[in-house]
Please model this.
Amino acid sequence: MQVLLGHYTEGDVPELTAANIEATFAQLYGARGDMFERGVLQCFKRLSWDYKTNQPFKFGNRIIVKYLFSQGSSNYRVTNELDDLMRVFSVLDGKPEPDHRHGISGLIQDAQRQRKTEAQNAYFHLRWFKNGNGHLTFSRPDLVEQMNKILAKHYPDALASEAR
Model:
């Protein structure tokens, strides 16, 4: 993918033909596994590692989500990151990616309308607090293990041995 984009930014754009378009899409399709794994790595890197329960070397049972709320409403940057995490779980589970209209932000809003401070979907339980932070507990340890295997593939010396 980087090689492909590098050609375009350097001005080396291939001629617009059906064969070149087909080759570009074939290359992207062939790299989809690597792109997915890079997405898992990025998702992992963006999560907060400031608390004891968050493990900087693997996904554990639970993570602390900093700044889930800002000024009384959900923080869209954080909910977008959790949506990315939900998409990863969906793909690993062999299910289609969820519609963006059924994301974490909507899940939180529905719970707030019912005066609740927690929400749940098929992949995790989310509870939030007055300080704006949340606790996310994973519901599917099998999918967490798959994500940890992806991390172990890219950072073999960083993960605990049971994740390999």
Notes: Residues 47-163 form one domain. The chain has a mean pLDDT of 82. The helical segments are 2-9, 18-30, 32-46, 76-92, 104-113, 141-154. The two ends are 27 Å apart (CA to CA).
